[in-house]
Design goal:
Blueprint: H1 14-33, E1 37-38, E2 44-46, H2 47-53, H3 59-64, E3 67-69, E4 75-78, H4 83-92, E5 102-111, E6 123-132, H5 137-153, E7 160-165, H6 169-183, H7 192-200, H8 211-216, H9 229-244, E8 250-251, E9 263-270, E10 279-285, H10 289-292, E11 300-306, H11 307-316, E12 328-333, H12 336-351, E13 355-358, H13 365-374, E14 379-383, H14 385-390, E15 392-397, E16 403-407, H15 411-418
Parallel strand pairs: 1-5, 7-8, 12-13, 12-14
Antiparallel strand pairs: 2-4, 3-4, 5-6, 6-11, 7-9, 9-10, 10-11, 14-15, 15-16
Length: about 425
């Protein structure tokens, strides 16, 4: 019996990898245009980081983390999300001692033990952006704009941006009391998970995707009605900046996000055609997270975007990504001596920055030309004993079939003209 990959993980074959690389390059270019720099954190961290950073009442911590002990008995966890790790790196490396804000982004694998389904895997990949050290609502708007612009830049259609404010600890305390008073008499109508949430963090009941719970909470008090003046002013400023950039959004008073560290701005971007799990991106402000992790008071705002869901949405909408890349050339050698000369020539051309392929099976010229065609080569350079004696190669245009000879010393210069 052959060994197969574990459930919940994927292989990415060359064509898929090319699509990922294209999307990642677009992400990096967009982030750099706004002054964000890449950060890379470990794939595993101390388990306590996520218990304190993500929240002990979340499904991620309670049900979904891949946790293990090392040989010294320390509890470690494969990272289930990126924000807590970035916050830990910010505090540990004392970035707060430098001029704020710190504008960071990351791209990498995350791990959650949840039922594999469309767009959800045990190992998945996130792109995330964090602006640390500023409470300015313009930072919130820039984060939202960046996430929205990426979807538009890649050609996604029918996206919707949902926006809310979940308030600060002061105004949210009043809302918690009102929401608890509303939900407690209706607790029997909630799912088992939400009955637990009602006791630990009632706000998260609103985040449940199960229909009975959504029906039960449909008439619940709305959080924006309980915002304090400061939070109202902050949210109004975020909305005004989004309007200034023509970023469309829909207010959603039920949007609370699934992690405990959010405050004030919260948002999600929804893509059609992905089923129940249709959010490709979500984020918001988390001003208290750094203190929760033992760092200095540091406001922050950011988002995370699931790359599998993003690419799934692109495939669902038949968006064709431009994956042309640099032109390819094939050196077709005939005979042992010609092959030795061609190997050297290929090395010289590659060193000059060209993409040059050679047949590695000693095939006939006809087969090598078929190989060049399969690889999408722009030109095939035929090198046989006759050509070597005259110091030339025969350049065949694979699109037209036309062929001409090029002196070997002039080949590198000729390739620049053929690009």
């Amino acid at each position: 019996m052959s060994i197969q990959r574990p459930q919940g993980v994927q292989d990415f074959l060359p064509r898929q990898t090319a699509e990922w690389q294209y999307v990642e390059n677009e992400i990096r270019a967009l982030c750099q245009s706004c002054g964000y720099e890449e950060i890379r954190t470990p794939v595993f961290e101390a388990t306590e980081l996520f218990r304190r950073g993500v929240g002990a009442t979340t499904d991620i911590v309670n049900k979904e983390m891949f946790t293990f002990e090392d040989k010294n008995g320390r509890s470690l966890t494969l990272r289930p999300e990126g924000t807590a790790a970035v916050a830990r790196a910010y505090a540990e490396n004392k970035l707060y001692g430098q001029t704020p804000p710190w504008k960071l982004y990351y791209i990498g694998p995350m791990f959650r033990y949840e039922k594999p389904q469309a767009g959800r895997f045990h190992q998945f990949h996130q792109f995330g952006v964090e602006a640390l050290g500023t409470g300015d609502p313009l930072a919130d708007a820039e984060i939202v704009w960046l996430a929205w612009t990426l979807g538009e830049k890649l050609g996604l259609r029918g996206l919707s941006l949902r926006l809310n404010s979940v308030g600060c600890p002061v105004c949210r305390r009043n809302y918690h009391a009102a929401l608890t008073a509303f939900l407690q008499p209706r607790a029997p109508e909630l799912c088992a998970d939400c009955r637990v949430r009602l006791e630990k963090n009632p706000l998260r009941v609103l985040d449940c995707k199960k229909e009975p719970c959504q029906a039960t909470t449909a008439a619940a008090p709305e959080l924006p009605d309980y915002l304090c003046p400061d939070c109202r002013e902050h949210f109004a400023a975020v909305r005004s900046y989004l309007a200034a950039t023509d970023t469309p959004y829909q207010l959603d008073s039920r949007l609370v996000r699934g992690l405990d560290y959010y405050c004030k701005t919260a948002f999600e971007i929804i893509a059609p055609g992905l089923g129940a799990q249709n959010a490709i991106c979500g984020g918001g402000r988390y001003d208290g997270l750094m203190e929760e992790l033992g760092g200095p008071p540091t406001p922050g705002v950011g988002f995370a975007l699931g790359l599998e869901r993003l690419l799934g949405a692109l495939a669902e909408q038949n968006v064709s990504l431009p994956l042309s890349g640099p032109p390819r050339y094939v050196l077709a050698a005939l005979g042992a001596e010609a092959r030795r000369r061609a190997v050297r020539l290929a090395a010289e051309l590659r060193a000059a920055g060209f993409t040059v392929l050679m047949d590695l099976q000693g095939q006939s010229l006809k087969s090598q030309l078929k190989f060049a065609d399969r690889k999408g080569a722009a030109f095939t350079f035929i090198c046989g004993e006759n050509e070597l004696e005259r110091g030339v190669v025969a350049a065949r245009d694979m699109r037209t079939g036309e062929q001409r000879e090029i002196p070997l010393p002039e080949l590198a210069r000729a390739l620049k003209d053929l690009r």
